[in-house]
Amino acid sequence: MSNSPSQNHDNGVEQFRHHPSAPPHESFDVSTTVDPAYVISLIRKLLPSDAKYGERANGNGLIREESRAAGITQDAANLPENGGESATMQSSDNGQEKQNGCQSGGESAGEQAWEECGCILWDLAASEDHAQFMVQNLILEVLLASLTVSRSLRMTEISLGIIGNIACQEDSRKHIASVNGLVGVIVEQLFQDDVSCLCEACRVLTVCLRGDEGVIWAEALQPEHILSRILWIAENALNPLLIEKSVGLLLAILESPPEVAEILIRRLLNMRISSLLIRLLAFEMGKLKEDRTPERYSVLDLILRAIEELSTMDNYSVETSENKELLQLVKDLIELPDNFEVASSCVTATVLIANLLTDATHLASELSQDLNFLQGLFDVFPFASEDTEAQSAIWSIISRILTALQEREMTPSMLNFLVSVLASKLDLIEDELLAHPVDHGEQSTDTSGANIDARLISMTRISDVLSYWKLSDESVKNTSFAEGCSINKEDVDKLLDHCRKASR
Question: Are 100 and 3 in contact (CB under 8 A)?
Answer without folding.
Answer: yes
